[in-house]
Automatic annotation (TrEMBL):
Its EC number is 2.2.1.2. CDD domains: Transaldolase_like. This is Transaldolase. It is found in: Cytoplasm. One of its GO terms (cellular component) is cytoplasm. Transaldolase is important for the balance of metabolites in the pentose-phosphate pathway. The keyword Lipid biosynthesis does not apply. It catalyses: D-sedoheptulose 7-phosphate + D-glyceraldehyde 3-phosphate = D-erythrose 4-phosphate + beta-D-fructose 6-phosphate. Keywords: Cytoplasm, Pentose shunt, Plasmid, Schiff base, Transferase. GO terms for molecular function: transaldolase activity.
Amino acid sequence: MHRLYREQGQSPWLDNLTRPYLRDGTLAGFVAAGIRGVTANPTIFARAIAGSDAYDAQFAALIAEGLAVEDAYWELAAADVVDAAAILRPVYDTSGGTDGFVSIEVAPELARDTDATIAAAGRLHERIARPNVFVKIPATAEGIPAIADMIGKGVSINITLIFSLARYEQVIEAYLQGLEALAARGGELAAVRSVASFFVSRVDTEVDRRLEHSGDPEAPGLRGRAAIAQARLAYRIFRDRFTGPRWEALAARGARVQRPLWASTSTKNPDYPDTRYVDSLIGPDTVNTLPEATITAFEDHGTLTRSIDTDPAGAAAVLGELAAVGVDMDDVGRTLEDQGVAAFHRSFADLLTELRAKAHQLAQR
């Protein structure tokens, strides 16, 4: 994975975080092999905590101290993030603060509440207090002003659950407005980092489902083409928005670009190549988050060639063809956003239910 960064300027991050990985050297091994960051979300934390006894001792101690179950969860998650940040701190230092980040997301039930998101993001930032930790905020309509607010306070943010170009434009605008507010306050722009997590494979899953029900004879030929085309156009938006007088004024104050992060890059459809969403989205100033299986596949047979901006006109043509057969990409984005928020909420709720049952068992001993 070193070559992906050194030769192409793309940072590979691991899309997983578990306590066993922290304890047995697995995460340190990934970092030594070229992984430059770690992302997690409510589903990942739920799977990690529910699937391992590595958390039981700390959880029991927290419950014995009188903590509520949800408060105990945040202690478990924060402990993992702190330990992961320590492992990745050398990457953060040697990269000048570009990489070496670990992400922790605000509670998913806050996704539609701006004020609650701002408050929760502030608490997480203060609680963990590590320079190489991102607080994750979802790119819902209600999340957009929270992003601007946090950036304006100098908090580094990972914006998650971006599924459409329209929403991505709003995310970039929120970042720029936040930097401008921070500059007006005399803040240190160089200390702020941000990534915009643009989800990929789920787009093909939803678009392909719609194409199957289209009835248009041209629809089958468009299967599996939407996600990469949209991500490539997102990269063009990124390049366009981080140039020109407005951006240059911020850059002169030390501001750094908000890098696009390709999320959901494991292949969901077994008919598609397993490195499809890595091979096709390689380019400078980007991040790709990969689960373990995709890392292994790319190291074995991936194609290490710049591909993100090879054919922007072709990418635009694909979206035009999709519109012609009745696929509304903005509606696709709204659908996937709703599904993503709901899925994270279910994972979080299920985990809390399981932890409450475990707390009850502990109380009976």
